[in-house]
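If you are new to this repository, start here. Below is one unmodified record pulled from the training split, so you can see the exact layout before writing a loader.
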Amino acid sequence: MTQTTSHRQAPRGQKIQRRPVHGVLLLDKPLGLSSNQALQKAKWLLRADKAGHTGTLDPLATGVLPLCFGAATKFSQLQLDADKTYEAVLLLGQKTSTADAEGDVIETRPVPAITPELLAEMTRRFTGPLAQVPPMYSALKKDGKALYEYARKGQEVEREARHITIYKLNMVPAQDPRAPAAIKIIVSCSKGTYIRTLGEDIGEAIGCGAHLGSLRRLETGGYTDRQCVSLPALEAMSEAEREACLLPVQSLVAGFPSVTLGADDAGRFLSGLRRRGSPGQWGPDSAMVQVYGPSTGSGQAPSTGSGPATDRPAFLGSAHVTADELIPGRLLSPIEIQDMLVASPSLASSPAAPAALAH
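And here is the target side for that same chain:
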């Protein structure tokens, strides 16, 4: 791991020297910041030259926001497509312009008794496949413009319903001083689900209207909020301690089968060439496998003695298997693999699942 001194804020006007950083930071996004604002703060703290997040959380929301640095950005789409779990509080009796507590109240209605029978009915009604119309205050594009751009001008445009799935829904009464009645929900859902819209739809089904009072992402694609680090904690760390919070790039694909190649096959694989195997050598046909190779040889590991050597397999990228052919997908470059091995051999080679990577 690169050794650094404790973090000091750069003098005003002094440019921060960026550097290659590779891995996944599980950030507990704070209330009030956009996902991009949180990303830029973390990127600045790590002095990373390349970073991206894996799906937007509203400023109102907190919780799991995986931030991808360097080579990890090549695999961020997997998190965008991942199932997710949220906890939210629905404030009953009022609809707002944004379907959450940040909007203006546009309608007020009396709230019926929130009985166990009513909650059981709502749980049944809103579990399973659903068609959901995206909210106007969202980043979805219409004719090249985000929907929220229309909404801020008071315009409403037609949106097509999207097919989503609510895998599990738990609903219990809650207390909140902002509303005459409230419900806490925990939702496990497919990608593309808008919890604001779900909350608004539940309020309509009850007959009183509702909006989100709070929202927290508990889990996404195997990463949980128990693994996350907060921005204040990150700010208090030295740069080396921040690097120690990074999970390996391959944690993004850890749920898929793995294949380990010899030096010759690894070199050709990194060049983008398919590898023909004997029957069953790469396992059964698979839409995704994680691929490893030797940490020395084939040009993908350091040859200058500038970093620690390791005999553990090095992560090379992803592939799919069809008819005993290993077909390259997203590949790391030799420079990226070398950077990861020099910075931390464990970040380059640990084929561990996300659940095993809590810190």
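Two things worth knowing about this chain: The two ends are 17 Å apart (CA to CA). The mean pLDDT is 87.
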